[in-house]
Amino acid sequence: MARETHVRKIDGFEYTCTQFPPQKALRVLTRLTKHVGEPLAKIMQSADSGKSMLDQDVGKLAIGEALSALGKSMGDDDAYQLCTDIC
């Protein structure tokens, strides 16, 4: 399957996204899930099930707990490596 590139304009800025090759995509997905899973769960615990995820009014406490959990799971080297792999 060929990798696709998508170009979108948002607020006058043009963004380009290109799919990763399958093996790299799986590695990045696994690492993102490891680091972002718990923080996202903390935010979603305060979510209103009647609203879409983008329309949630998330409290400051939930965001703080999520950032704290992210900080505990991701060290400097992890953050740097993940950014290097993504960019």
Pick out the low-confidence regions: none
Provide the spatial order of strands within the biggest beta sheet.
1-2
Major sheet, described briefly? Answer: 2 strands, antiparallel
State the helix count.
3
Share in helix: 55-70%
Radius of gyration: 16 Å
Outline of the structure:
With 87 residues, the protein is of the alpha+beta class. 56% of the residues lie in helices and 14% in strands. Helix 1 (22-45) packs antiparallel against helix 2 (60-73).
Q: What are the main properties of this structure?
A:
87 residues; 56% helix; single chain; alpha+beta; 2 strands; two-stranded antiparallel sheet
Fold and architecture overview:
By secondary structure, the chain is of the alpha+beta class. It has one domain (about 5-85). Helix content is about 55%, strand content about 15%. The protein is globular, with a radius of gyration of 16 Å.
List the helices and strands and how they pair.
Blueprint lengths: L4 E6 L2 E6 L3 H24 L14 H14 L2 H11 L1
Antiparallel strand pairs: 1-2
